Amino acid sequence: MEKCDRIKGLEAFNKKYSTNKKCLEKIKNIRWKNGFRCPRCNCNEAWDIAPFKCKCRNCGYQTSVTAGTIFHRTHLPMTKWFQAIYYLSVRRENATATELQNILDIGSNKTALSVFNKLVPMTYCTIGKRLTWHNNQLKGIVEIEESEIFFDHKGRDIIVIVESKHGSIGRIRIVENPKRQNPIAFLKNLNHQLIDEKATVRIHSREISCPLAKRVSQDFKDWCQKKEEQKQKKTFKELRFVYCNMINAYKVKVTFNDILKNILGNNVPPAYNSKLKK
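^ that's the sequence the OP posted. Answer follows.
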């Protein structure tokens, strides 16, 4: 009871999905909401050969509601998987494998970390809610930092734009500034407006401190350096896109159903690389 109280709504959620059967019913309703469809021949007729398992009448292929997902042949009860998904939907960027292990009473550190690492990417790419490169203007207090990054044997001038949310990092944008223009003049000349005209803009200088933008700028440099050391074949533009979307995705509210649909639909971008927490 005490552990459930630490995560809002977890106790009620556990009652709703109290058995493996209830969890599998939920998965079945999502995957086969329009009826069974054979993944091999696309036939829509099948025999039930076991609970939540079918055999295609046309080609004889056998499949289950969890086939092809991270749930397939798992030794962990489905109730634990569902609790882990709910935990991540509530905790998002503050989630850790250690906390997940303690709250869900998962005995093995290795199992908890494995579950955590498999689920985190599913919280990043949310169906119908993914932020694109330039939608949604930054509002409120916006910090701007000019910086330079050395990538692919070339120095690049960038402008880091960070939305302040109650003193914490909100949504971000990172754009290249090859001609080293004044930030405000450069941003006005862009084809799309990144900052709301009513926003309070703070540009880093000797007199004005922009700690959030500075932190994002340094983190982005470190992240790009790691990618270069790993010899990932990504252009600088692609890395900017992935990094911004990775950070911005956590600013969008994600529900249990969003994450579960991502898992069942394998809706994860190949460029994603999560910052895993132990």
